[in-house]
Amino acid sequence: MLGRELNSWLRAPAVGNTVVRHIRTVWERRFLKDLYHRRELLGSDPVIARSSLPNWNYQAELYAFGSRLGASNTAIENWIPALTTPSFAERNDVSDNAGYEHQSLRGDGQESTSNNNTLREEGNNVLRLNVAVFLRAQFPKAPEEFIQGVTEQLVSNKLLHMIGNTIGLDTLIRTGEHPPSEQSISDSLRALLAVVDSKTASKIIMDFIIPQILDVDLEEILSFDEPLEVAASQLKKLGFNEIVPRILRSSGEMSAEPCYVVGLYADQKLVGQAAGESLTVAIRWASVDALLGSWRIMPDQICFFAENALENLDFAKYSQPNPSLKQLCGDDVNTKLLAKPVEGLNIIEAALRWRNEIEPVVGRTYSKTLRHKFSRGTFVKRTFRRLAKPKVYNLG
């Protein structure tokens, strides 16, 4: 046995100072496959909290966090209530007065369990006001429904959760669950805006939240039921009389993937164009393009994300809402929006509901019991084929 292993080691090619073996023995391949499938059955390792490591210093982390936000003048003890969720007080190590066992509860006022219930509401108002003021200054011709639609995109939990993870909020938040949920991180980010002064809050919003508008699809903010009718009413108010859609070019009409490019003309002037897989779709998006153009909203819109962009705006002027769609289009124009599509079946929720609610009541169905996923060739189950070294044959 030792001689065979030594012989295979000598035949292995050498790369630098490392010996590489390309062909493993039969027992070794089966053994490694068995270990791999056993690891799959065991599952992934549990997520370990950063605060459970011995080199965790909550005070230093909060100081570095304030410096990252540009709010180093804010006292460290002011960050703690904003980063504490209501579920934090329900933890066993906190409710049983054993808080000093947790790394984020060691002295300097960190034993406080005051949460961010009030702060998140105040911060949400600050966030919405600053975002809406910036959007009204950038899009003064847009209706208020468009401003509110973009605002909802920028202050959504999904976006704030992504920003919170980017700035390291997921390791600083004090909550009952681990890892922190999307709602907890987004609420803590809103609460942070309430513990800093208005100038710092505007700077944080300008640096981290408003630039995400570059990823917002402005064409899908208002999905009108009849966009051509709305675009025609807006163009007529600008002095145009005849609004007609025309085909600019097309390709693959008789194929499985046709493409039509339609332009919208106002008094023989091209005001919008778009492509689509059918004439109906192309006309719809060409109307949306013309409608956004009438509101001075361009695809290559330039937004100024300067540090003091919000400070230089007239808050008293842009705090007032823009004209609504009814005021711009009139009551005789159909400004209804398309209904949001119903989400499909969530497989994970259905599986959890079966395991937690249905199976304890009705029991398991009569189905074939599957064996464990150990590899073929182990002691439990033999292989269907021989894992032998292939032989070379001459073809001729």
Automatic annotation (TrEMBL):
Gene3D superfamilies: 3.30.160.20, Ribonuclease III domain. GO terms for biological process: RNA processing. Coiled coil: none annotated. Pfam families: DSRM_MRPL44 (PF22892), RM44_endonuclase (PF22935). The keyword Ribonucleoprotein applies. Residues 99-121 are annotated as: Disordered. It is found in: Mitochondrion. Residues 62-196 form the RNase III domain. InterPro entries: Ribosomal_mL44_DSRM_metazoa, RM44_endonuclase, RNase_III_dom, RNase_III_sf. It comes from the Eukaryota. GO terms for cellular component: mitochondrion; ribonucleoprotein complex; ribosome. This is Large ribosomal subunit protein mL44.
